[in-house]
Design goal:
Order of helices and strands: EEEHEEHHEHEHHEHEHEHEHHHHHH
Structural class: alpha/beta
Radius of gyration: 19 Å
Number of domains: 2
Strand content: 5-15%
Helix content: 40-55%
Number of helices: 15
CATH architecture of the largest domain: Alpha-Beta Barrel
Number of strands: 11
Distance between the termini: 41 Å
CATH topology of the largest domain: TIM Barrel
């Protein structure tokens, strides 16, 4: 699968951009675990243009995480162009436009999936970004705004016509948010459209190697993107890649492996963000890292009260 000049494996498996999840420390973990490509958290074009420190820091990239895309969002054409140019200076492998975020504070400003109410504007901004940068530009979007309006087949064609290098489609509408079941049938129709020449990547409800294989075989997509199922579960990339290549399910990680990777993640987060912030932000990952471990809920609540790296390390290592 090629995104412009960027070459990815066939049946590529990508880490979805997730706010407050896919920061630098976690992207590095997921790449080590087999993700073929990763993306930054989404970055506000308004924040970049205003030189907001939080937005600027989100663009930090390590060579070890490549290939990596920087994802931007916004609704103002000039700001999106400027943000794309600033993102290009950070030297990612691609620039991704977020036309899919369903969160109210984003949608209310006409950004994210809010743009699905104004397809002409969506196409105009995308075209301007493509023209403004030399890197491949990709788009992540949804089927449509609500059940009554799901124009993704036509929209995908129009986005391709203005020069995007690939499209990722989440199989829900904006109105669905993350509820209900992702509908991959329209993703399949986009891929089957004879006019579509760029890669089509499917996203939504992929939480197992078997589901990943099913999506490739049933809908013919070029790649899949895994989001919520990867939170605290970077092993999903190892498992999916192994199953796609060999048809064999690998054993789940042992408790010791879970602890080692969790601590490696925490160590890297501390290195990048400092101990206090890293410990606070790490709390959202523990449920994923130790899902299915008997009696871990009590231990998790105990760890959540700890405020130093050495305390957390000692408590987790006591379980090994």
């Amino acid at each position: 699968m090629n995104l412009g000049s960027l070459k990815l494996p066939n049946r590529a498996v990508l880490l979805a951009p997730l706010e407050d999840i896919t920061d630098l420390s976690y992207r590095l973990i997921c790449r080590k675990m087999g993700a073929d490509m990763v993306f930054t958290e989404f970055i506000s074009s308004d924040g970049l243009v205003r030189d907001a420190d939080k937005s600027i820091k989100k663009m930090r990239i390590y060579e070890e995480e490549r290939p990596v895309g920087i994802q931007i969002f916004g609704s103002d054409l000039q700001q999106m162009v400027m943000a794309a140019q600033m993102a290009e200076e950070a030297a990612p492998d691609t620039i991704d436009i977020n036309w899919g975020c369903p969160v109210r504070k984003v949608v209310s400003k006409g950004a994210g999936s809010g743009i699905l109410k104004d397809i002409l504007k969506m196409i105009a901004i995308t075209a301007a970004v493509v023209k403004a940068v030399k890197l491949p530009v990709t788009v992540k979007t949804r089927l449509g705004y609500d059940e009554s309006d799901k124009p993704i087949v036509e929209v995908a064609e129009r986005l391709q016509d203005v020069g995007i290098a690939a499209i990722t489609i989440h199989g829900r509408t904006r109105a669905q948010m993350y509820s209900g079941k992702a509908d991959w049938t329209l993703i399949g129709k986009v891929k089957a459209n004879p006019r579509m020449k760029i890669p089509v990547i499917g996203n939504g409800d992929i939480d197992s190697p078997q589901k990943a294989l099913e999506m490739f075989e049933r809908y013919g997509v070029d790649g899949i993107m895994i989001g919520r199922a990867a939170i605290g579960n970077p092993w999903i990339f190892t498992a999916v890649k192994s199953f796609l290549q060999t048809g064999t399910l690998i054993s789940p990680p042992s408790l010791n492996e879970r602890i080692e990777v969790c601590l490696a993640h925490l160590d890297k987060a501390v290195e990048i963000k400092g101990e206090k912030r890293a410990i606070l932000e790490m709390r959202k990952f523990y449920s994923g890292y130790f899902k299915g471990i008997p009696h871990f809920k009590t231990i998790r609540m105990e760890i959540m009260q700890l405020t130093s790296l050495i305390e957390i390390r000692n408590r987790l290592q006591q379980l090994m």
